[in-house]
Amino acid sequence: MILVSAGLLLAACSTSQSNSSTSTTQENPALGDVLPPDVALNVQNQVSEFLGVSAENIQIEKVEKMDWPNSCLGLPGADEVCAEAITPGWRLVFNVTGREYRYRVDATGTVIRQEP
After folding, report:
1. Most CB within 10 Å of its CB: which of 19, 26, 61, 88?
2. How far are the Cα atoms of 13, 25, 36, 86 from residue 73, in angstroms, in the given order?
3. Residue 54 maps to a domain
């Protein structure tokens, strides 16, 4: 009985997480060490469309593997429901004519969010 209570207490404590994302320093089994080119291209094309500039003028400055707190990559929209599950992905920092733009993307490149 005591072991069950201790297990429940530990489980309750371990499930309380903040909405902040964490950068991974360990190997993430869902991601390789290198950003897949198709994921980079998907995000680059979205940045290109959003800013109305040619993709050739958009340079990736930084790529960081991340574990996002939910399926909305920690950036839910108004009235949007997000799956509360750790979502592996990337943070990309782009330079467009001297200005930085930060984007979050899931591991497959299908969910893309611009950071505020």
Report:
1. 88
2. 23, 18, 18, 9
3. yes
Indicate the pLDDT class of residue 80, thresholds 50, 70 and 90: very high
**88 in Cβ contact with 31 (< 8 Å):** yes
The Cα 84–Cα 96 span in angstroms is: 33
Confidence (pTM): 0.71
Alpha carbon distance 62, 77 (integer Å): 25
Q: How many domains would you assign to the chain?
A: 1
- Strand ranges (DSSP E) for 3-107? 22-23, 58-68, 87-96, 99-106
- Inside any domain, residue 23: yes
Domain-embedded: residue 108: yes
Q: Find the domain containing 57 and state its range.
A: 19-114
CA angle 11/12/18 to nearest 5° reads: 110
In three-state secondary structure terms, 43 is helix
Of 71, 58, 68, 64, the residue nearest 20 (C-alpha): 68
Domain contains 11: no
